Amino acid sequence: MCGRFSFYQAPETVAELFQLAGIPQIKPRYNIAPTQSVSTVLQQEETQERQFQMMRWGLIPFWAKDVKMGAKLINARSETVSEKPSFRSPFKHRRCWILADGFYEWETTDSGKQPFYFQLKDGEPFAFAGLWERWQSPEGESIESCTILTTEANELMSRIHVRMPVILSPTSRDRWLDSATPPEELHPLLTPYDSQEMIGYPVSRMVNTPKTDSPDCVQRIAGGEE
């Protein structure tokens, strides 16, 4: 499960790291929640050029009657993604990067749920493995939406939750984005990220409120280990 994440990197850093043609128009986000807009990268099949695009988080299948279904499809299990009707076609033809620099998960404690923030040790932004879809309303409105793939938790995450989002390694990002990559070569990319390359720490419960979006959300609080 991945229900909240952050992406607050400078646009110039994003353009350089992910080799974008232009500098994206983005603002810092510290507590991104489902149905909100997220930063994604697609690859144009004809030119192979990477395209930055904002999308709605929560995949709306093209056959859905309305947008409400998207709120239930913020994540897709990597083990079954090629079988589920909502994800089969995007898995083959519409893969994307969903850009982030950290994500939240909650530990159940005697005093309630305690949020933890997880990121790479070097603080660099990264790409979740994502799928996207285009949905059109009866009135002609077009919405591009996406979902984050999940896998089993690594050692760092396992004491907090049994699942974690798929973070693509720098060596696997290109293959995931390339529409020419055969489907049978995709599943090996969807593995837990190396625990040794990540850190996690407790943060304020202010992140429990989706409307709260400030640098304080990602600040470490006392009372937990990495």
TrEMBL record:
Enzyme Commission code: 3.4.-.-
Keyword tags: Covalent protein-DNA linkage, DNA damage, DNA-binding, Hydrolase, Lyase, Protease
Enzyme class: hydrolase
PANTHER family registered for this protein in UniProt: ABASIC SITE PROCESSING PROTEIN HMCES, DC12-RELATED
Family: Belongs to the SOS response-associated peptidase family.
Protein's name in the database: Abasic site processing protein
